[in-house]
Amino acid sequence: MDLLIDTIQRYISLSPEEEGIIRNLFREQKFGKGEHLLLAGQVCKNIFFIEQGLVRYYVSIDGEEKTSYFNKEGEFVCDYSSFLPQQPAQTNIQALEEAIVYSISKSDIEVLYQRVREGDRFGRLALGEVYVTAIHQISSLYADSPEQRYQNFFDNFPDIAQRIPQYYIASYVGIKPQSLSRIRKRLAQKH
């Protein structure tokens, strides 16, 4: 749980007592490769923090999965559009490899906000990052070419590209796997 504490301390300072509060509020969970942390239609009841592993966010449209994001070790995972209003999710969150996560419920995050001196500030800063990332992602889908979106993938996820199957990367970029192969070939010829 040290990674979780260190990550929170990037946003706010914590006293030893507050570290103890956080350690008591988060629960360890394990997910196998392919298991879902959240399925579309369920209400997202937890925020997860990845201690070990990798997850993807995706939606199913007409039987086709469209990958929208990835999270890795040291990052928070949540469908905030479901979690905050406690409404059914439209997004699936799936472990791409064995994962160890720490989860905190909506009621316990409220306890954290109340009992940790700068808890509210942490929540605002962390959610602000999620919001900005989502806006950049949506803008890229409309404004950038597939080649640029592929480059953005490597800029945003340089350390996990080898851990993700190519068809998920293609889905994230918004193209078919065959098109991804052509883009990769063109980019390799440029370098």
From TrEMBL:
Residues 10-112 form the Cyclic nucleotide-binding domain. It holds the Pfam family cNMP_binding. InterPro entries: cNMP-bd_dom, cNMP-bd_dom_sf, RmlC-like_jellyroll. It comes from the Bacteria. This is CRP-like cAMP-binding protein.
